[in-house]
Amino acid sequence: MKIICIGRNYVNHAKEMNSEVPKEPMIFIKPETAINNQDTLQYPIFTKSLHYELELVLKISKTGKNISLENASQHYQEIGLGIDFTARDIQYKCKEKGHPWEKAKAFDDSATVGAFVNKEKLNTQNISFELKLNDETKQIGRSKDMIFDFDYLIHYASQFFTLEEGDLIFTGTPEGVGEVKVGDKLVGYLESEILFNVTIN
Ligand code: MG
User: Fold this and answer.
1) Of 148, 133, 137, nearest in space to 56 by CA
2) Among candidates 127, 132, 153, 152, which has minimal Cα distance to 142?
3) Which of 34, 94, 164, 199 is a Cys-bridge partner for 111, taking CB atoms 3.0 to 4.6 Å apart?
4) In this structure, are residues 132 and 18 in contact, taking their beta carbons and an 8 Å threshold?
5) If you measure from the C-alpha of residue 83 to the centroid of ligand 1, how many angstroms do you get, rounded to a whole number?
6) What residues make up the domain containing 92?
7) pLDDT of 10-31, one tens digit each?
8) What share of the chain is helix, strand, coil (3-state, %, to 5)?
């Protein structure tokens, strides 16, 4: 399986990164070894600036290639929450040199993945989600603020990559990204339900 990640899918996050708002989805991939579904995360030794990015996550339920916009919603049944952990210091160095940024984004355990909820229980056009760090709210997002919505992301990504059952799509982070330190506790809420709870070790 693979994890397809979308960059800069919220206008206010693109602004906080001093980045342009993209005209088409920005895509990168994390490998299966990036998945962390434990309640702890080991702070990686190679970075001094580990950032959280809370994201809505789609679980692909049906394999497809060149999926039409009209059929896109048939390819996922569950929505969850994850953190696209990013070694921001390394990412800046990669960006500066024009190098690929996998070292900063796709390392082991860089994708915290929480529980999933059946999409029938949600209004997919307007899901709200929230990240608390040590009980303080750091990020609040709403799916309606995405530049490219779920169906478009599935349609777009499937032109390049066959989407296989079990693949995950991280749909981008809203504003409010920031650093974590050893000992921090991160809790992710979808509507008011806790989907993950992870402590940095
Ligand atoms: Mg991200």
Assistant:
1) 148
2) 127
3) 34
4) no
5) 8
6) 3-200
7) 999 888 888 888 899 999 999 9
8) 20, 40, 40
Single-letter code of the amino acid located at 158: S
For the segment 42-94, what is each residue's pLDDT rounded down to a tens digit? 999 999 999 999 999 999 999 999 999 999 999 999 999 999 999 999 999 99
For residue 55, the CA-to-ligand 1 centroid distance in Å is 7
Predicted pLDDT of residue 24: 95
Neighbours of ion ligand 1 (CB under 5 A): 53, 84, 173
Tokens of 140: 């609040």
Measure the CA–CA gap between 179 and 177, rounded to whole angstroms.
Answer: 7
Q: CB of 76 within 8 A of CB of 119?
A: yes
What's the confidence (pLDDT) of residue 47? 98
pLDDT in tens, 156-189: 999 999 999 999 999 999 999 999 999 999 999 9
Q: Is the dihedral of CA 69, 75, 79, 82 positive or negative?
A: negative
Number of domains in the chain: 1
For position 125, which CATH number holds? 3.90.850.10
